[in-house]
Amino acid sequence: MNVLKRCIYGFSILSLALLTIECKGSQKDEKQENTTQKKNNVSIEKKEYGTTPAGQKVDIYTLKNQKGMEVNIMTYGGIITSLKVPNKAGVSEEVAIGFNNLEQYTKPNPYFGALIGRFGNRIAKGKFTLDGKEYQLATNNGKNALHGGPEGFHRRIWTAEEAKGGDVATLKLKYISKDMEEGYPGHLTVFVTYTLKNDNSLDVLYEATTDKKTVLNLTQHSYFNLSGDFSKPILNDEITIDADKLVPVDADLIPTGKLMDVTNTPFDFRKPKVIGKDIEAKDDQIKKGLGYDHCWVLNNQDKGERFAASAYNPTSGRLLEVFTDQPGIQFYSGNFLDGTLPMRNGGTYAHRTGLCLETQHYPDSPNQKDFPTTVLNPGENYKTKTTFKFSVK
Ligand code: BGC
Predict the structure, then answer these.
(1) Which residues pair with 209 in a beta bridge?
(2) pTM, whole model, 2 decimals?
(3) Ligand 1, closest atom to CA 141?
(4) What's the half-sphere exposure (Cβ side, CA atoms, 13 Å) at 340?
């Protein structure tokens, strides 16, 4: 009996000791996890930004990571009003064109930082036909429709839902576009989710559903100047585009319908090339675009999200890589910037002081039978993702 009691007693002491050791271990794990979480923490903060002339309240969200990247996004147009990333000396600076107040964004401007919908790029004569029915869109670019029309998604108020989880911060924006808004059929529910991560990348996830057959081509219209100095043109940046072909255009920047091989043309960016090298070349397409303002046909279209293009500024060392699952990318070298719009701290945005890399379907797809389709049917989920990743080299 005594032997048994002693055994039980001994066993209990041993178990207690083991339990204490284990508890201490897990306390340590928890502590470690908290420190890692703190170290990797990405924050998101909401502020009131202002009121539009129509009396709508606008909020602005600041997403910050631990690697010096900070992005400001407002509910008006889902616009990225500011994007700061470090240069090779570790100094964070502004790299996206923007204004310093809401009022300026509500005045006409070339879509600075905005979400574009329902249809990025041009639709010839603002017309297209679906199931035998012709639709006439609001036109705003001569006789053509550009970037969703004069009252496109870039001028709408989006509702926002923020979330923070460890090393990512997300801002999910929602907009419901009414049937026939700007001439497009279907009641469309759109979500755009911006996610800032600790590897200095910003994901843009676009999702949508419709209750009627429609066309859709969403994109993001930020103008980057990786030098961090907006008085400097982007002409010394090196561009890479993983595309063997281009969508050539007519004088109104409407696709001719054929695709063009980029070999031996100013449009060959398969190896990094300085923008300024061929931007003034005696070339028909360069003349029509007044520089670069074209959609490239990206390679590896069956591969899902893959590398599409990059821009590198050798002075600051900043590299921007763009990944997407989209078939095309519009590289626009800011040819229409004309020194009339105000910079944040004085001065104006001059010719070619910002560049856009807009992932998308090819322009005028609804009228081009050989281009990948942009039709969205009821019951289908539109879902596409683009990542803007910043680093230095
Ligand atoms: C187009 C340009 C246009 C600019 C601003 C770009 O996406 O390709 O032609 O001028 O947007 O509207």
Answers:
(1) 189
(2) 0.90
(3) 12
(4) 7
Mutate to test the pocket of ligand 1, among 97, 356, 359 (most ligand atoms within 8 A of CB): 356
Rg (CA), the chain: 25
Q: What's the pLDDT tens digit per position in 15-74? A: 444 434 443 444 444 444 444 445 568 999 999 999 999 999 999 999 999 999 999 999
CA distance 11 to 319: 63
Place of tokens 């670069």: 292
Structure tokens at 322: 């763009």
The angle subtended at Cα 282 by Cα 279 and Cα 286, nearest 5°, is: 50
Q: How many other C-beta atoms can be found within 10 angstroms of the C-beta atom of residue 121?
A: 28
221 is catalytic: yes
The Cα–Cα gap between 86 and 41 comes to 18
**Atom in ligand 1 nearest the alpha carbon of residue 121:** 7
Give tens-digit pLDDT for 345-372: 999 999 999 999 999 999 999 999 999 9
From 295, 336, 353, the mutation candidate for ligand 1 (largest count of ligand atoms within 8 A of CB) is 336
The protein residue whose alpha carbon is closest to atom 10 in ligand 1 is: 336
Q: How far apart are CA 172 and CA 181, in angstroms?
A: 22
| Cβ proximity of 266 and 279 under 8 Å | yes
Residue pair 299/242 in contact by the 8 Å Cβ criterion: yes
Pocket of ligand 1 (CB under 6 A): 110-111, 253, 293, 330, 332, 336, 356, 358
**How many angstroms separate the alpha carbon of residue 4 from the centre of ligand 1?**
87
Cβ-contact 316, 227 below 8 angstroms: yes
Q: Are the beta carbons of 47 and 60 closer than 8 angstroms?
A: yes
Q: Whose CA is nearest to atom 12 of ligand 1?
A: 110
User: CA–CA separation, 118 vs 155, rounded Å?
Assistant: 12
Q: Which candidate in 94, 154, 182, 221 is catalytic?
A: 221
Rounded CA-CA distance 309/40 in Å is 28
Residue 357: C-alpha distances to residues 24, 232, 239 (Å): 52, 18, 10
Report the phi/psi class of residue 76: left, alpha or beta, with left for phi > 0 and alpha for psi in -120 to 50: beta
Report the separation in Å between the CA atom of 331 and the middle of ligand 1, taken as the mean of its atom positions.
9
